Amino acid sequence: MSLQFVGLSEINGPLVVLDHVPSVGYDEMVELKMKNGAVRLGRVVEVEGERCVIQVFEGTNGISLTNATVRLLGHPMEMPLSAEILGRTLSGAGKPIDGLGDIYAEKREDINGKPLNPVARTYPKNYINTGISSIDCLMTLIRGQKLPIFSGSGMQHNKLAVQIVRQANIAEESGQKFGIVFAAMGVKNDVADYFKRSFEESGVMDKVVMFLNLSNDPIIERILTPRCALTVAEYLAFEHNMHILVVMTDMTSYCEALREFSSSKGEIPGRKGFPGYLYSDLASLYERAGVIDTAQGSVTQIPILTMPNDDITHPVPDLTGYITEGQIVLDRSLDQMGVYPPISILPSLSRLMKDGIGEGYTRADHSAVSNQLFASYAKVQDARALASVIGEEELSDTDKQYVRFGNAFERHFINQGFTDNRSIEQTLNLGWRLLSLLPREELDRVESELLDKFYNPEDAKDLLA
Hints:
By secondary structure, the protein is α/β, with parallel strands linked by helices. About 30% of the residues lie in helices and about 25% in strands. Strand 13 (about 180-185), helix 3 and strand 14 form a beta-alpha-beta unit.
């Protein structure tokens, strides 16, 4: 039985208050009907005894204390789910906006997800090939992992997101399908059009479910977007045994919407005005990635967030780094040099890659190549720092070789075209050619058997041209 109440006690921004409401549930959905017949949706975000605070998705413009009838629906917000959802474009709240009609739901699920027994989780293994050398070789993306991209305002993270969506694939030896759930939060109209156009032109739209929350949409919808997207991902992965990659951009917009919403509720702010529960709220999203033993599918997450003022200690990247298994950091100086994708190698890592690469996954020499490239590029930074003090002509011969290696590494390995889709074989072979620019005795992270097989200075000379 659903209850109806006439009139409101209070209106405050996107929130309305209702008194004398017995047995109301937190997160319960609500319908507000105006005198003109218009209906708006909301949900209960705070309960104090018989007093409840309701968040109105479409805003409270035109609502007065006397002209609204409130009906409690008795259930939390639910997402209509069907295998036919692939290829659809939805609003941030999960409503179809592609002109193809409503989704014929096989079932409906609470967008907050089901509690997952930690014992049911299995350790993520097997890698996802993105076709991007710096990611595939040095910070490999593993199925079931959450690996965020830390970017800065105005950098090419949207372009990188499109390239990952277009190129990402898994080995299909088991016949399993691969799909992508793409959630854009707080983006401008031109960015939303860029995403849609790019996916359609590259022919991947039939395996993508796209959620679009525009910058002029209500902030309340922005808070729902990642939860709707992850509900679809879990359904496709754990009930249809698909491998699902979830790309969410921009998580900073989501966190700022959460801060605005928290402020309107009068909550005590934490660091930089964000609510004190920001960590647990982000964890409730990121921890919905993984692999479970009762299904053959997986949910992998790539959240993308912009760091205000390029500050990696800002609360959003800081807390994200605590929850996720590594990060990919974009570098503004590389971006200004015209390097794409401008991935900063040294602060980036993937904590799960060690168990998803090597013999049987990528190639036996993958770990050795990765370790040696990291170590060598770290020495490049030392040589460049020394050159900035004493001048490059005063460097030792070895340091000069490291500087040449660093320039070639950035020009040929990190830098690659937007349409350049490299296989793991091409990436590792290119890594060996670059390492062959250095003296053999400097390659101390590689076994001599691998050096005998792959080290070939003659094959690397063209990289210096």
